[in-house]
Design brief:
Blueprint lengths: L8 E3 L14 E2 L5 E5 L4 E4 L12 H4 L10 H9 L8 E5 L5 H4 L4 H10 L1 H25 L5 E5 L12 H21 L3 E5 L8 H6 L4 E2 L8 H8 L4 E7 L6 H15 L5 E6 L5 H22 L4
Parallel strand pairs: 1-5, 5-6, 6-7, 7-8, 8-9, 9-10
Antiparallel strand pairs: 2-3, 3-4
């Protein structure tokens, strides 16, 4: 069973200025101001940031990046030097078709566009899909081996998705499906990063060709997802290791995880520690490799 994060290379091009480069407080190439939040180890848009003043006029107000002047070739050559050729290379496609819009305007106004400006919204999402296809094609062209795309688009809160399934299908799914079809047509697999309690959208995820999702812990029911969709989709489920756990406790937890989620062969383990004791992670990975190897040899009658 793979250990999530450790089995692949992340392709995060500096040439794609979806965030400030490097990741410090500043503007991306859409004119959105980002600020680093040290407590969570990530960036958010600065409260009050606004690129779009009136969504009905987004065509006049949004300045789209000119990809023809970006030196993808040089950036690709530089990044390839850091990659392990024996591991999958995953392009981190951040700021998805939907979330890019609410980074350009207040979130409440973003939600209102689904009701007040559905035609404008469809046009915006399709234009964003064009941009995603064009930029991703540059990554496929200039960054060497690319096996899959990790597509980021957050669709929910910890309580539920932002949209009804009907609204999701009507407004968000057409443009998203078109972009994801482009990815699949290039022979790449698709992993989804989508925070929130988004279990309600799994049928739509599968329909759009998404191969894998890492559901947000505590917001989603891992057992439900595994029992209902574990043969149709790959999931990466987290396992939190307590600060005071000893070796025997860690190894037992890993074995229990494999026994519980291993049968479909479509589950990854996301080992989660507080990083104060590096040996915890090493113990968990050692047990995962050896025990899951034994588990699958028995399951598939090998050796």
């Amino acid at each position: 069973m793979p250990a999530y994060f450790y089995e692949s290379n992340t392709v995060w091009p500096d040439a794609m200025e979806e965030h400030p480069v490097p990741e410090v407080d500043g503007y991306d190439w859409w004119g959105v101001y980002w600020t680093m939040v040290e407590q969570v180890g990530g960036m958010i848009t600065k409260p009050g940031t606004r690129v779009i003043k009136d969504f009905a006029n987004w065509k006049e107000e949004v300045e789209w990046p000119d990809l023809s002047v970006v030196d993808f070739e040089a950036d690709g050559k530089k990044l390839q030097k850091t990659m392990d050729p024996d591991r999958p290379h995953i392009y981190e496609c951040v700021e998805g078709i939907s979330e890019r819009l609410h980074e350009m305007m207040p979130f409440d106004e973003y939600l209102l566009t689904f009701y007040e400006e559905p035609e404008c919204l469809e046009e915006f999402f399709q234009k964003m899909a064009d941009y995603k296809i064009e930029s991703t094609s540059k990554i496929f062209q200039y960054y060497g081996q690319i096996d899959g795309v990790l597509y980021h688009d957050d669709w929910g809160t910890e309580r539920s998705g932002f949209f009804s399934n009907e609204m999701f299908r009507k407004q968000l799914m057409p443009a998203t499906s078109r972009f994801l079809k482009f990815v699949k047509d290039q022979g790449k697999f698709i992993e989804l990063h989508s925070c929130g309690r988004n279990m309600q959208y799994v049928p739509e995820m599968i329909e759009m060709g998404i191969d894998m999702w890492t559901p947000q812990m505590r917001a989603n029911d891992a057992d439900y997802l595994y029992d209902h969709f574990g043969k149709q989709m790959t999931f990466s489920f987290g396992m939190e290791i307590g600060h005071d756990w000893k070796e025997a406790e860690i190894r037992k937890a890993v074995r229990d995880f494999v026994d519980h989620y291993g049968e479909t062969g479509r589950t990854m383990l996301w080992i989660m520690t507080d990083r104060t004791d590096p040996s915890q992670d090493l113990i968990a990975r050692d047990e995962l490799y050896n025990y899951s190897l034994e588990y699958y040899n028995k399951l598939y009658h090998r050796g």
